[in-house]
Structure formats: structure tokens, C-alpha cells
Design a protein that fits this description.
Blueprint: H1 2-31, H2 34-54, H3 58-67, H4 71-106, H5 112-119, H6 123-138, H7 142-165, H8 170-191, H9 202-236, H10 239-248, H11 258-275, H12 279-316, H13 323-330, H14 343-347, H15 351-376, H16 378-403, H17 408-411, H18 414-434, H19 442-460, H20 466-472
Helix pairs in contact: 1-7, 1-11, 1-12, 1-20, 2-4, 2-5, 2-9, 2-10, 3-4, 3-6, 3-9, 4-5, 4-6, 4-9, 5-8, 6-8, 7-8, 9-10, 9-15, 9-16, 10-13, 11-12, 12-13, 12-18, 12-19, 13-16, 15-16, 18-19
Protein name: Oligosaccharide flippase family protein
Keywords: Cell membrane, Membrane, Transmembrane, Transmembrane helix
Transmembrane segments: 7-28, 40-66, 113-132, 144-164, 170-191, 212-234, 254-274, 295-317, 323-341, 353-372, 378-404, 416-435, 441-461
């Protein structure tokens, strides 16, 4: 259960981050108008996409190189990734500053330019930290990674709230976000200082970039699949629909972080096992994580589908009630956020295959976004994202299983899954009928009855492992007395 422990440690830290962000979001939605809120979101959107573009797959490819290197060589790999990322971030930041006015024209938002120029500097800090974070995870320093993420995110939120509440300035808010990322990198450098050497291998950097380029391009396409909907809404519909869409395209704390945590923890292990051709162990590892993730995630998804309107109106206010349908549709992505679909392909050095899959999915996504946004507005964008992510996952999963000579039925227990979903839906329908005439806060009572019943049933009949619960509840509760 060591790998599951790491998954849920990292997921718990990331879940705390999302809780902080979810507490922060209603504040921003209420104190900023559509123009200010939309502009703030557009700045973060653009830089996130550019960061994915400039990562060149280094935070992922480093796992493969570290797994195949001895201790002395690992230091060289780490430093090459670190300095290479810093240089790329510096060049990327300068280029983004010079191109910021073009983004303002594309998004038809004059207020975007100055904010984007300021936040462009964050690339110099985001990219190197991503390599440091990957290094921490490879060395099993998962708790350190989680703590850094939580602490710096709390600082970011504090800086932004101070900027808005005291100075009434979105410009200072963006500076606060930048400052939090400077602090994040500084903490990472201090903790990893013994591994940082003031020399680097140009040949190794070149090799890392060459090997990582297909993954980097894949990252760009992956970011495009996630962000192109928001960009196209901004361009086609305008900044107000974008603000409404952005507030609906959110996921729940902890549950939504399982996917990223699984990806970060399982990839290094799969890379090692693949080198040993231990395909049965790979299947066992992935099945254990997949099935337990489903049992935790799917009941939450069904709850959200039955209560999306009341949740959004209570959370963000009547101003964003149109975000509710986007929220319901967007959270269907939780159906597939249960495993890393690229880990086996990366381990098998099939980066070009991954790239082709992402390119195909990206093209499908652009086409669907245009057709569905024109026809259905912001809801069409959410539908497009869900369909595209399902296509992306299905293609990678089929090829991955072929590589390890396994079948879909080897990975999923469909009988158990169908039974669990049926239980959740039946209980949700009964509770929906009971609370049908009540007010908007009934989702609290709904959840107070629904979740204890469902998870007690799943635990009682061994649908998922009790060891997972022990990772989420303080350990002293499980100590034996006497």
C-alpha cells in the first residue's frame, strides 16, 4: 500500500489547496465585476498554457532518466533539468511580454496587456520549480511537495485578497500571485540545495530536451484540450460568458486532485516495473489504484449531478446561476480522472504515439468547440471538453493495455462498478424525492445522509480498501488501546 499512501498524501495536500481556492473563489466572484474577474482569469489562463508549451516535457521525462541513473548521475540529470527550465522560462517570459498586445487583440480585452506583461515573469519561477517538485516525488519526499504546495497557495490567496480588499487593484493581485511563485521556488531551492550544483551538462540538457520534446508538445496539446474552450468562449462570446463559464468549470476538493496525484506517484513506479518487464505487477498496481479511486470518486460525482444548481447558487450567488449547468457537465470528467493514461506509454518510450493521440484529440476538440459553442454557448464548450477527454483517455488506455498484453476486463471490475453506481443513483433519487419541495440549502442535508450511507455500504462490503481511509483520518484514531 506504499504507493497508495503516497497518492493520498499528495492528493490530500492538493485537496487542501483546492479547498483554499474554493473558499477564495466566492470572494472574487462577489467583489469583482465580470470585466475584472474575467481579465484576472484570462491572464492566468494564458500563462498556464505558455508554461505547458515551454515545459518541453522535462518534469515527466526526468522520471525516466532518474530511474535509469545511479546516484551521481541523478544529480547531473536534476541540475540539467533545473537550469534548462530556468533558461527556457527567462526566454519565454521575455517573448510573452513582447507578444502581450497580440493576446489583448485576440481576446478583445485592452486591460489584458499590462497584467499579462507583469505575470509573464512567473515563467522564470514556475518551470524550474516543476523540475524540483518532480525530483522531490522521485525521492519519495511527497509530504514536502504537498506542504510547499499548500503553504504557497495560502500565501497566494492572502496576497490576492489583500490586494483586492485593501488596494482595490487587480494589478497588485497579479503581483501577489507572482510573489507567491517566487517564494515557492525559493523554498524548493533551499530544501534541495544539497543536490544543486553550479554546473550543468549542455549535452545532457540537449538530450533531455530532445527526448522530452514530444512529451512537451503533448503537454501543449493537453493544455490546449483543457484551455481552448475558455479561449474560444472569450473570443466568440465575450468576457462575461467567459467569467460565467470559468466559475462553472470547477471540480471538487480532494477528489479532483486524485488524478494528478496518481500521475505523479505511479509514473516512476511504472517506469521501473516496465524496465523489468513486470507487466503483472503493473496491472496489479494500476487496478488497485483505479478501482479504489472509482469507489471514492463516483459517489461524489452522482451527488454533484443531483445538486449542481443549488450548490452553485449557494456558493457563488444568483449572479452566476448560469454556471450551474456548466458545473454539472464539466464534472463528468471525474469519470475518467482515476488513473494516469500515459504512464505505460511513457515508460515504453512511446512519446510519439502519445503525441499523435493528443494531436488527434486536440483537433477534435477545436472542431467540437467551434460547433458546440456556436450552437449551445458555454454549455457546448463544457460538452466538448468532456467528449475530448474521453477520447484522449480511451485511445491511450487501449494502446497501453496492448503493450502489457492485458485486457480491459483485467483492469476494471465492471460488475462491482455497476453495482456501486446503481446503489448511488437509487439512494440519490430517493433523497431527491424527499427534499424536492425544500430550499436551495437542501443539498447539505442531502449530502449529510447520502455520503455516510454510501461509504459505509462500500466499506462494509469491501468495495474499497480500509487502508485508504487510514490515510485520510489521523493515525491516532487507529491505535490500539492498552
Amino acid at each position: 500500500m506504499q504507493k497508495l499512501t503516497k497518492v493520498f498524501t499528495l492528493a490530500f495536500g492538493q485537496g487542501l489547496n483546492i479547498i483554499v481556492n474554493l473558499l477564495f473563489l466566492p470572494y472574487m466572484a462577489r467583489v469583482l465585476d465580470y470585466q475584472e474577474y474575467g481579465t484576472y482569469g484570462q491572464v492566468l489562463l494564458i500563462v498556464s498554457f505558455i508554461a505547458a508549451l515551454l515545459s518541453f516535457g522535462l518534469p515527466q521525462i526526468i522520471y525516466v532518466y532518474l530511474a535509469n541513473a545511479d546516484d551521481s548521475k541523478r544529480i547531473s540529470v536534476f541540475n540539467s533539468c533545473l537550469y534548462g527550465s530556468a533558461l527556457i522560462g527567462l526566454v519565454g517570459g521575455i517573448l510573452l511580454i513582447s507578444c502581450s498586445s497580440l493576446f489583448s487583440l485576440w481576446f478583445n480585452n485592452e486591460g489584458l496587456t499590462i497584467l499579462l506583461q507583469l505575470y509573464s515573469l512567473s515563467l522564470l519561477f514556475i518551470l524550474p520549480f516543476n523540475c524540483i517538485n518532480s525530483y522531490f516525488i522521485f525521492l519519495n519526499k511527497v509530504k514536502i511537495s504537498a506542504i510547499i504546495a499548500v503553504v504557497t497557495n495560502i500565501l497566494k490567496v492572502g496576497f490576492v485578497i489583500t490586494a483586492i480588499h485593501v488596494f482595490h487593484s487587480v494589478y497588485i493581485a497579479i503581483f501577489g500571485v507572482l510573489l507567491s511563485e517566487i517564494i515557492q521556488l525559493t523554498i524548493g531551492v533551499i530544501i534541495s540545495r544539497k543536490s544543486i550544483k553550479f554546473k550543468f551538462d549542455f549535452i545532457l540538457i540537449k538530450e533531455l530536451l530532445k527526448k522530452g520534446f514530444p512529451l512537451g508538445l503533448t503537454g501543449v496539446l493537453g493544455a490546449g484540450i483543457l484551455y481552448v474552450d475558455s479561449a474560444m468562449i472569450s473570443s466568440i462570446e465575450g468576457i462575461k460568458p467567459y467569467a460565467i463559464y470559468r466559475n462553472g468549470a470547477i471540480e471538487v476538493p480532494f477528489i479532483s486532485t486524485l488524478y494528478a496525484s496518481i500521475s505523479a506517484i505511479v509514473l516512476p513506479e511504472v517506469a521501473k516495473l516496465f524496465q523489468e518487464a513486470n507487466f503483472d505487477r503493473i496491472l496489479d498496481l494500476k487496478k488497485k489504484v483505479v478501482m479504489n479511486s472509482m469507489m471514492l470518486t463516483y459517489p461524489v460525482l452522482i451527488f454533484l449531478l443531483f445538486n449542481s444548481h443549488n450548490i452553485i447558487v449557494t456558493y457563488l450567488g444568483e449572479m452566476y446561476k448560469e454556471s450551474a449547468i456548466v458545473f454539472a457537465v464539466f464534472n463528468l470528467t471525474l469519470l475518467i480522472r482515476i488513473t494516469n493514461y500515459s504512464d505505460i506509454l511513457i515508460s515504453a518510450n512511446k512519446s510519439k504515439v502519445i503525441l499523435k493521440i493528443y494531436l488527434l484529440t486536440f483537433c477534435i476538440n477545436i472542431m467540437l468547440n467551434y460547433l458546440l459553442i456556436v450552437s449551445f454557448g458555454i454549455v457546448g464548450a463544457a460538452i466538448s471538453t468532456v467528449i475530448s477527454l474521453f477520447v484522449l483517455a480511451a485511445l491511450q488506455l487501449v494502446i497501453s493495455l496492448q503493450l502489457i498484453k492485458k485486457r480491459l476486463t483485467d483492469l476494471f471490475d465492471f460488475k462491482m462498478l455497476l453495482l456501486m453506481i446503481s446503489l448511488c443513483v437509487v439512494l440519490a433519487l430517493v433523497l431527491k424525492w424527499i427534499f424536492s419541495s425544500s430550499g436551495k440549502y437542501t443539498f447539505l442535508f442531502f449530502g449529510g445522509i447520502y455520503f455516510p450511507i454510501i461509504y459505509l455500504i462500500l466499506l462494509r462490503f469491501d468495495f474499497f480498501s480500509m487502508d485508504i481511509i487510514k490515510q485520510l483520518i489521523p493515525k491516532f484514531l487507529f491505535r490500539k488501546k492498552g
